[in-house]
Amino acid sequence: MDDFLAGFAELFARFDVLGAFWVNIQLTFWAALLSLVLGTVLALMRISPIASLRWAGTAYVTIFRNTPLTIILTFTYLVLFSQLALSLSDTLDTTFFWFAVIGLAVYHAAFVCEAIRSGVNTVPVGQAEAARAIGLSFLPAAALVIFPQAFRGAVAPLGNTLIALLKNSTVAAAASVSTETSSLMRTMIEFRPDLMVAIFLTFALGYVILVIPIGLVTTSLSRRLAVKR
Amino acid sequence: MDQSTPTTGQPAADETVDAPTSDRVLGAPLVELKNVNKHFGALHVLQDIDLTVRKGEVLVVIGPSGSGKSTLCRAINRLETIDDGTISVDGKTLPEEGKALAQLRAEVGMVFQSFNLFAHKTVLDNVTLGPRKVRGLSKKAAEAEAMTLLDRVGVANQAGKMPAQLSGGQQQRVAIARALAMHPKVMLFDEPTSALDPEMINEVLDAMVALAQEGMTMIVVTHEMGFARKAANRVVFMADGQIVEEAPPEEFFTAPKSERARDFLSKILTH
Q1: Structure confidence by residue, pLDDT tens digits, A8-20
Q2: Is A158 near chain B, with CB under 8 Å?
Q3: Using an 8 Å Cβ cutoff, are A66 and A136 in contact?
């Protein structure tokens, strides 16, 4: 047992485990922010009165929800960076980081859109009719009446999307983000295969510790914010 | 009785409006429906509806469920689209979509059966939302007027509460205040008391009678005969998507001309 614990101490001393988790937290933060904005716009498009916008929103969701994340992230690296030579920064690490953020965001925006749409479905149709009846056109009605209620109904599914995003941020390795957790884990196993179990537990428990509060917060938020009817 | 009152199904807009029961003076035509048709799938829910409502008139629409009366009411501010025919409000034909439609809706007040107060906003914010966001009033001006309106319908003391904290009757009176805050030219009431507990019906009807007495043009889908007798100029009886009979309320309730109306009235009057 002592040996086992000493193994953990050694791992933490030699490898920057916390630093790697910090990279994933940053990836998650920026991708969550971007995907929330993009997902909200997509949800607006999907419920809009303009057929071509609805069609475009549906097409986006169908394409990105059904494409494996690894492929999207590999695409950002291979096509955007290698082929088109797009650069987002002077340093390669920063460029790869933002490519990963964009890849994660466009993928999860499809799920955010569907989470918000499920929230829209919790808003009775009479709310939209009342908004239209006082003379609000589509955008103000959505912004002032529908979405404020829809977001409250979407807190739980949005929380689930955030949890998935945090864990999916490890796929950023596919976009050459080499400092994040799954890349570090591979390095650690390469150097210390004798501590395989400890390495595995380190990352598994690390993610459990990060994810549990998200679940707790979203559950209590969705209860507290619920619109009383 | 007045000979100009039409019987079954005739387009009768021109003749009837000259025969109001009250001494109210009616103005120019405000809401006009011409040859309006609508289908829900195979169901022909509005059949060649012709109807004119003049400024200052209170029209009660009555009829069995499924007769199309709610659809008719909702078509007037285009919450229901129509297949053909024209509907115009104050001389303007209903626009199909967009800003022009929103502008027209702002001038047509609507009160729903299920109140439909904005559930995430306080009573006061429910009433000020339209004036502020559609009419561009300042917060202060909108709130001052909202308080006057809430006071008028007797719920000023509830201004800070959320809709769910109010009784059905109070919610419906807030909904009336919310519609009035837009200074509508005409008010539509779609079965405003049908979702209320019996002891709350009168408080809502009282607010509506007061509104009628102030000269508001109203189209009211309701089965409340007390209201029709007290406030209406004209009753329109609908069945199976058609206007079967129209008459002043007293005449309609005491001597209905059509078999359908007699049958309907006998069913709602026997208890």
Answers
A1: 888 898 999 999 9
A2: no
A3: no
* Structural domains in chain A plus CATH codes: 2-225 (1.10.3720.10)
Among the partner residues A130, A135, A149, nearest to B134 by beta-carbon distance: A135
Could you tell me if B29 and B54 are in contact, meaning their C-beta atoms sit under 8 angstroms apart?
yes
B98 in A contact zone (CB under 8 Å) = yes
Best probe of the A interface among B77, B133, B189, by most A CBs < 10 A, is B133
Instruction: Say which DSSP state A123 is in.
Output: S
Are B129 and A49 an interchain contact pair (Cβ–Cβ within 8 Å)? no
ipTM, two decimals: 0.86
A vs B: CB pairs below 8 A? 74
A19-34 pLDDT, tens digit per residue, is 999 999 999 999 999 9
